[in-house]
Design goal:
By secondary structure, the chain is of the alpha+beta class. Helices cover about 65% and strands about 10% of the residues. Helix 6 runs antiparallel to helix 7.
């Protein structure tokens, strides 16, 4: 007995020593988050929900529809359910596995075997009664009972796996939050894209009417001998070109509406919207706050951080695979070699086997699993660092864009005013004979282009603000 105990102790020591020789991989140093997003050191953080941020009633209704019907969000919810189920599976692995079963077996033992001789000799004993005589040809075996297998978590390996599964569940929830943030931003972006296209369409239609009036004037002048057919054709070509641009905008509206309806999880439906984009003031910029505070509350950064925590637990569990496992297999049953005797009191049987086994020959496979866990941890670490750097760059870029678009819009407003006055002057000079029809056409084309650019700058200002809202965490304040 003492010899067996010494052997057992030696094997356990070898297994433990083998585990200690596997050293965990050290992670590289993390990135240093700057103290501020801008040179001014902006440190005020507005905490707004998307319903406080987006005040357009039409847009709010569209976002509510997307959050309820979007298929990507529904799929993300199912991924969370999968992660929750994996947590339960990992938790159940720490409990005994109990199975109920019944079996019947028949054996015919040869006369020159231990069982054959033993059964024959047993039947000759005067110490057994008729019920306990063993059938010799063949021998039956009936079993009805419960068997159990339980790995005692003596090293905490199963506990680590449970923690990893739970952290992944939390990570999947953060993933859903980040997806929701993206969906809200996309809906808002498409909404303002449609509003801008509506404004461009009105600008185009207004210019078509003005160009048609100019064409009528030139045609009248040609009839009176004051203009040439070339001038008429040039003015007519300008009208046709602008009419073609109108249909291009109409097609762009159809495309954006289709994409937006798809995002809302529905078939083609009218998109109600406020079309007074050019009259809306450019909103004030969101105060981003401290980078360390803003970035670490972004759902995608939190998701990456939780994924890193899960892989770290995977590495710990993988190291413990080198340690011996304690497995206990108890059973309770009714067992007899005659069917009528199975349910009698003398057929009750019970037993248990405990084994402590450590890996020896298959260490290469376990080491490969450990290496995979370490590589996964490094991959998660780099993903986490990348999410921080990317988030910082997104915030800085959008803050600068908002400032630049504000200044560009002011200049574009002045440009449109100047060009509009220029069209009036060109028409007067043309009628007075001091300007050519080409100067009128150029002036009209310039003001049309400038008005469209003014609308685009206003749209991009809203888009940058939406992107900044998403970059600082968006929906989930």
């Amino acid at each position: 007995m003492m010899k067996n105990l010494r052997t057992f102790t030696i094997l356990a020591a070898v297994a433990i020593t083998g585990c200690r020789t596997i050293k965990p991989v050290e992670l590289p140093p993390p990135v240093n988050i700057p103290g501020a997003f801008t040179a001014s050191g902006d440190t005020t953080a507005n905490r707004l929900s998307w319903k406080d941020f987006f005040t357009d009633e039409n847009l709010v209704k569209l976002i509510d529809t997307a959050l309820a019907n979007n298929f990507d969000i529904k799929a993300a919810v199912q991924r969370i359910e999968i992660a929750r189920a994996n947590t339960r599976i990992a938790d159940a692995a720490r409990l005994p596995f109990v199975s109920a079963g019944a079996s019947a077996a028949v054996d015919r033992y040869a006369k020159y075997t231990m069982n054959g001789v033993g059964n024959f000799d047993t039947n000759l004993s005067s110490n057994i009664d008729k019920k306990r005589k063993i059938p010799t040809s063949p021998t039956q075996d009936y079993f009805v009972g419960f068997r159990s297998t339980w790995e005692a978590d003596i090293w905490g390996k199963l506990k680590d796996r449970k923690k990893a599964a739970y952290v992944r569940y939390l990570s999947s929830e953060k993933g859903r939050q980040w997806l929701t943030t993206q969906i809200v931003s996309e809906v808002a972006g498409m909404y303002y894209e449609l509003v801008a296209l509506d404004n461009q369409l009105r600008i185009i239609q207004k210019n078509i009417e003005l160009q048609k009036k100019g064409l009528e004037v030139v045609e009248a002048q040609m009839a009176g001998g004051r203009a040439t057919a070339l001038a008429v054709k040039q003015f007519n070509a300008q009208v046709l070109h602008t009419q073609g641009a109108e249909y291009e905008i109409r097609q762009a509206i159809i495309r954006i509406e289709s994409d937006l309806n798809n995002l809302l999880g529905r078939f083609s439906s009218p998109i109600a919207r406020d079309t007074t984009l050019r009259t809306k003031p450019i909103p004030e910029k969101i105060q981003a706050g401290l980078p360390s505070e803003v970035l670490l509350r972004r759902p995608d950064v939190q998701e990456a951080e939780l994924a890193l925590m899960a892989t770290r637990l995977d590495v710990i569990a993988a190291r413990k695979e080198f340690l011996p496992s304690l497995t206990i297999n108890p059973y309770v049953s009714l067992n007899a070699f005659k069917l009528p005797l199975v349910f009698e009191g003398g057929s009750v049987a019970a037993g248990a086997v405990a084994s402590l086994a450590g890996p020896l020959i298959n260490r290469a496979a376990i080491k490969s699993g450990y290496n995979i866990a370490n590589a996964s941890q490094l991959q998660a670490f780099y993903n986490y660092q990348q999410s921080i750097v990317q988030g910082y760059q997104e915030v800085v870029t959008q803050m600068k864009l908002i400032d630049n678009y504000k200044e560009a819009y002011k200049l574009k407003v002045s440009e449109v005013q100047e060009l509009t006055e220029g069209v009036t002057n060109a028409n007067d000079l043309y009628l007075a004979g001091y300007a050519s029809y080409l100067e009128v056409i150029v002036a009209q084309g310039s003001v049309l282009q400038a008005e469209i650019e003014q609308t685009n700058i206003k749209k991009e200002s809203f888009q940058s603000l939406i992107n900044l809202f998403r970059s600082v965490g968006g929906v989930w304040y």
